[in-house]
Amino acid sequence: MTIEHYFRELQPPAGGFERLKARLAQSEPKREWFPRLAVASFASIAVLVALLWPVLDKVRQERQALAELETIFMEARMPPLMIDGKEPVRLELQRDDVVAFWLEPDSP
Amino acid sequence: MALSAEALEAAYRRLERPVYNYLFRWFWDAGVCEDLIHDAFERLWKKRERIDPDRIDALVWTSVINLARNHHARGKRWRWLPLPASLTGRNNPETETELDLRDRRLRRALDQLPDPSREVLLLELYAGMSRVEIAHTLGVAEGTLASRKHTAIARLRGLLEESES
Q: With an 8 Å Cβ cutoff, are B13 and A17 in contact?
């Protein structure tokens, strides 16, 4: 028996193209709304980021300024900063750009 | 330049049978074969604005080959166990025709071929493309294709003779 003898020609199920047409017709509406949805989502995200950007940027700037300040105090070759004979335990950059120095309370 | 609905239909009518025969020798299931054929044509239809109608046959075959590879790879990971013959009503020696037997022998033999050899053999049988076109579609050299085909036929012949005896 030759190999070709095993490969008989099969007939696909009838109505294949009609089923394909129905499937394509179903997927077409999705095709139309999908790009609109994608554009709308992208635009919404862009607007949200634009609205939040000033707030986020201010927070970022404050953090950066604080980090710079800390670096200056940590790296400066000068005697430790003393206030009333005490070393501050914490520094804080306040909203009005004033640096607050926190001291240990006096022991009773 | 774009693919029209008429060109799509003509391509479907022309290629459905050879593609179905190609896929059936991978999956042995009419429903799976039709789904994959429809997947391939749907993909092309979605890109219809950029498709050259003169290249539709090669594009359908490329898409079918890729879909078949993916489906076959998934099937290897999720292999379903066949129902016992008593439940399916098939493979009953009394009702089994010679064709069923031949198909089962062929299936067993094809399953033992390496996938690239099986692919080349089935494309040569059903794609109706020249050797150069098949080599181009598979992205292999013509020499590689010829060697794979030669090995596949020799191995398949051996396996079929073994099952006949």
A: yes
Q: What is the pLDDT of residue A64?
A: 93
A-B interface: how many C-beta pairs under 8 angstroms?
A: 58
On whether residue A93 sits in a domain, the answer given is yes
Query: How many distinct structural domains can be found in chain A?
Result: 1
**Token pair of A64, please?**
């950066």
Give how far A65 is from chain B: nearest CA, Å: 53
By C-alpha distance, the chain B residue nearest A1 is B161
For the complex shown, is ipTM > 0.90? no
Test mutation, B17, B108, B164, chain A, max A CBs within 10 A: B17
Print the domain residue range for A50.
15-102
pLDDT tens, A47-88? Answer: 999 999 999 999 999 999 999 988 887 777 667 788 888 888
Judged by CB atoms closer than 8 Å, whether chains meet at B156 and A17 is answered as: no
Using the beta-carbon criterion (under 8 Å), do A16 and B16 form an inter-chain contact? yes
Tell me the domains of chain B and their CATH numbers.
1-84 (1.10.1740), 97-165 (1.10.10.10)
Per-position DSSP letters for B25-73, written without gaps between them: HHH--HHHHHHHHHHHHHHHHHTGGG--GGGHHHHHHHHHHHHHHHHHH
- Give the span between the Cα atoms of A38 and A48, in whole angstroms: 16
Number of helices (H), then strands (E), belonging to chain B: the values are: 8, 0
Tell which A residues from 65 to 94 touch B, by Cβ distance under 8 Å.
Answer: none
Give chain B's mean pLDDT.
86
